[in-house]
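Predict the assembly for these two chains.
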Amino acid sequence: MESLKLIKRINDIPGDDVEYFAPGHRLCAGCGAPQLIRTVLKAIPDPKVVVNATGCVEVATTVYPYTSWRVNWVHNAFENAAATASGIEATFEVLEKKYGKKKPHIIVLGGDGGTFDIGLQSLSGAIERGHDFVYICYDNEAYMNTGIQRSAATPRGAWTTTTPSGRVIPGKPERKKDLIGIAVANGALYAATANPAFPVDLYNKILKADAVKGPAVIHYYSPCPTGWHMDPAKSIEAARLAVRTRVFPLYEYYEGKYRLTFDVKKPVPLEEYIKLQGRFRHLLKPENKWRLDQLKKDIEENWNRIVRLTQI
Amino acid sequence: MAQTMVKNSKLVGMNGDEAVAFAAKQANVDAVVAFPITPQTIIVERLSEYIFNGELEAAFIPVESEHSALSACIGAALTGGRVFTATASQGLALMYEILYIASSMRLPIVMALGNRAFSGPINIHCSHDDAYAARDAGWMSFFAENVQEAYDLIFPAFKITENKDVLLPAIVNLDAFILTHSVEGLYVFDDKVIPEFLPQKEPHDAIDFENPKTYGPFALFDYYMEIKRQQEAAMETARPIIKKVLDEYSEFSGRKYSPIKTYMIDDAEAAVMVLGSMAGTMRVFAKKAREAGKKVGVISLTQYRPFPVEELRKVVKGLKAIAVMDRSVSFGSPGAQLYMDVSTALYNMRERPLIYNVVYGLGGRELPIADIEKIFDDVLQVAKDGEVKKEIVWMGLRE
């Protein structure tokens, strides 16, 4: 890890001459996933294999007979990307010893549905077994591919098609699940949050995740203008505000230590973040203030918990 | 089937699970991916011993569920390695979604299936529910009748699945407990002769870093149907290849294997048709019936998918009636699964035997001798009457 060549400036990220993700894919304007994919494929050296859970990225990048992927890419099903990666990783390990085949770097991509919910068991098993891969959850905070249904990653109070902003129940009643906590508890060697508004931090975290010899998990905040009812031009602004409001703290875990990678001393008021997104509009109504207060409490508790972890 | 002593083999005592695990080891598999489930557990235990003791160099992936087992098999197979898994009953049911994905990705994976009844109520003994559940999933399927066959079939299963014109996964069925846990004498080869029949796997369409590919894309109405047709075409292509490989294996082992087996069928008036361990028992009682002057025979299938339609049409010529025995129920259907297959396969023959369905042995229920004798008497009676009075008969049931 110490010998890693971390980057300092955005210009240090390889440019268009190193491009593994072809244009012409069908992801929405303003989607956070393509930036993630391009960055990951530039950061992690060859040979590499991408395993992709069912979801927006899979559907929008591999409409047969076309593909956006200039690397080996595997899609199996929704809930089993980590298990599929286990098979690739462990078998290449043996083929390397037995027949001298080169073992690739393995990148796993899953949305929040495929990671927080239906794929959690498969991810837990794969981390516990210690497979050497970089698992990246691109979290757009709902099942966007099927039409904006709530997931365990949807924040409290958010509107989705299955947590409508009803007169009695205004948005999702439950708080967001803690993915990094789960990854660390299962035995991830490296775990970090990342965000498209902080590309240098993202790039360096991918380098670190790839460098550990074992499972690494990156929880990536992936703006979704379509699902969040947001202007596609505001994606990066929303991502930056998510960090500055403490909604999505940037931190990492390695060798038993937690570290904030971007400290937020004076948070921007949450209202600045939520007013960009139609999914939170109802929270600004006076009668729903109690729900907004719940969300604020979640954010504060989460921030304080992470800060405490960094002090251990 | 007479067990013949052949060169480079020795007689040992093993149960079906041990025999299957030993065969997978001798097949020099590169990955073993499995989750334990009764009655398959011994397979996984033995293979883990082989790997942990350095007798087999393979990835042992002890996944947290059968769903992940088959998912990881897909990943393992994409590397170009030789991949083995084993399950039973609920495990197969949990894999169900991925069965179809493995076959559509045309991945050569061999699975041993310890045929166990589906819950509920939960039961650990033999039914063929799991084998039948996989019948539409694009996997080839073979049935062992005894421990020797459970061992033997693993080798041709690998050779057939890995044939570049086939590339379909395969299941080797062995009856829960009756085969998985019964110790029988069987001949096993010396490790060193196996590559003569089953050489190291040649990877087809495996992950290749010089030539990266997209595996498992999204295909809609403009391509999906052609992809399905290709899978069916591969099943058709597999038929002569299965026959050829079974012939080669017969030569190699000195033990005769073919898609379909018949016993005393040539001059028979009536026959029973059966899958798995019951076949041998039915042959014993067919012989006794013959001694009493009853002209009966037995048909059993080694190859269940692709279903050997032409072979079956040939062997049933001259028969007046067949009792098709099913160790399963297809609720609300015209009959149980093998019965529906046989009825469909024979329907367009100009002259065909009468067919009826015998449901037996569910959840490991014994079929007493008196019932076996009655099945032969009944099917002869149907042949004599020229009429099926009852299409589905449950035997060994308390009512």
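The beta strands of chain A are 48-52, 72-75, 105-111, 134-139, 190-194, 216-221, 250-254, 257-262. Chain A has a mean pLDDT of 97.
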